[in-house]
Amino acid sequence: MTEQNVLLAFILTAIAGLSTGIGSLIALIAKHTNTNFLCASLGFSAGIMLYVSFMEMIPQGKLELVSAYGEKLGILYLILSFFAGITLINLIDFAIPKSLNPHEIQGVEDMDKNRSLKRTGIVIALSIAIHNFPEGIATFTSALGSLDVAIPITIAIAIHNIPEGIAVAVPVYHATNNRKKAFWLSFASGLAEPFGALIAYFFLMQFWTPVMNGIILAAVSGIMVFISLDELLPSAEKYGKHHISIMGLVAGMLLMAFSLYLFV
Questions:
Q1: Which residues contact 39 (CB under 8 A, 6 or more apart)?
Q2: Mean confidence (pLDDT) of the chain
Q3: 75 vs 65: CA distance, rounded Å
Q4: HSE-up (13 A, CA, CB side) for residue 46
Q5: Nearest-angstrom CA–CA distance, 240 and 73
Q6: How many CB atoms lie within 10 A of CB 153?
Q7: Which of 223, 254, 248 is nearest to 235 (CA)?
Q8: Are 2 and 146 spatial neighbours (Cβ–Cβ below 8 Å)?
Q9: Burial class (CB in 10 A: 0-12, 13-18, 19+), 254
Q10: How far apart are alpha carbons 9 and 144 in whole angstroms?
Q11: Where are the alpha helices (DSSP H) in 96-241?
Q12: Residues in CB range of 113: below 8 A, 6 or more apart
């Protein structure tokens, strides 16, 4: 693992995390949510995550763990790691109140109503940081591999974070009536992901072995599968555009399949 790979992993994680700023700009400038675009984008992001998890990361993790522990024990560790990733992100979801959860997507038109639902920017930013922290670890560790996996995952996480930025900026604007503050707090909340990358770098890199790589790949796959099934697709369905979200899902899988094929 070279210094160049690590630097690239940090850059990609930062891009993914700070894309919340795009969502906050949309929330503060647009008057209406482009539901078709959001619906297709969320499905597209889920397609990338699901395909790369099951077709690339889990097989690679299995290879590493089976090589170290043999078929039976290696697959057991793979299964445990996969569901440990799901458990981690699920526990974080349960720990954050629904009203503060950044994945409870809102439309930008919600900015003009329900002003009684005011929340302080600090509480919201903290909730975002807690929720997005493991996503930063997931993006960073995924990006330590080859570019054919790293770039699509970064795109998927970035798309995933855009509606998060909307969900953050709207309640912050309610709390402060200040568009600039809403933008910067939403933008800054994305720093949780690069921070997660820093934690991964300082605490995981010293233990990085083929076995650790296999465990991380399986756990990150679990996180991405959960995000796709629990957050992205339900959020797309919320807009009532079922077929558009599924077409986006298939398009994401197709793009991921061909991008991996080109690097075979």
A1: 236, 239, 241, 244, 245, 248
A2: 77
A3: 7
A4: 25
A5: 44
A6: 26
A7: 248
A8: no
A9: middle
A10: 6
A11: 121-143, 147-176, 179-189, 192-204, 210-226, 233-238
A12: none
Gap between the Cα atoms of 120 and 154, Å rounded: 30
Structure tokens of 100? 């503060």
Separation between Cα atoms, residue 73 and residue 23, nearest integer Å: 44
What are 129's two structure tokens?
A: 């940081």
Report the length, in residues, of the chain: 264
pTM above 0.85, yes or no: no
The owner of tokens 């555009």 is 241
The total number of structural domains in the chain stands at 1
* Location of structure tokens 């297709």: 40
All residue ranges of the chain with pLDDT < 50 are 102, 105, 108, 110-121
- Contact yes or no for 121/181 (Cβ under 8 A): yes
Give the helix/strand (H/E) hosting 54. Answer: none
Distance, CA of 228 to CA of 238 (rounded, Å): 14
Instruction: Render 63-109 in DSSP notation, one character per residue.
Output: HHHHHHH-HHHHHHHHHHHHHHHHHHHHHHHHHS-GGG-TTS---GG
Three-state DSSP class for 120?
coil
* Separation between Cα atoms, residue 228 and residue 123, nearest integer Å: 25
The pLDDT, as a whole number, for residue 161 is 76
Q: Any idea which residue has 């604007």 for tokens?
A: 173
The residue assigned the tokens 């796959």 is 221
C-alpha closest to that of 182 among 104, 95, 118, 98:
118
**Residue listed under structure tokens 């094929």:** 261
Structural domain boundaries, residue 42: 3-262
